[in-house]
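Continuing the series of single-chain predictions for the mutant panel. This is the parent chain; the variants come on the following pages.
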Amino acid sequence: MIKFLIFIVAGFLLYKLIMGDQKKKGVDKDKRTQELIDSGEMVKDPVCGTYVSTETDIRVKDEDQVYYFCSYECRDRFLHQQEEKG
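Parent structure:
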């Protein structure tokens, strides 16, 4: 019986250790993402709305406006929409 209780307590402590660390990482990631958005280093993908870094290679320049995309699929969809508009 005592071994079972020790096993349960050890499992609970291990769970808290792992999940507590995951929560901290999530908060740090959210904080860093918000810092990038606030500093202007991230912009919104015009197709899907995902925030992407301005350092991404997936971009389209249209006259004096530059559009940034999270994927080639979003970029292609955007270009197709622009062609339909004329």
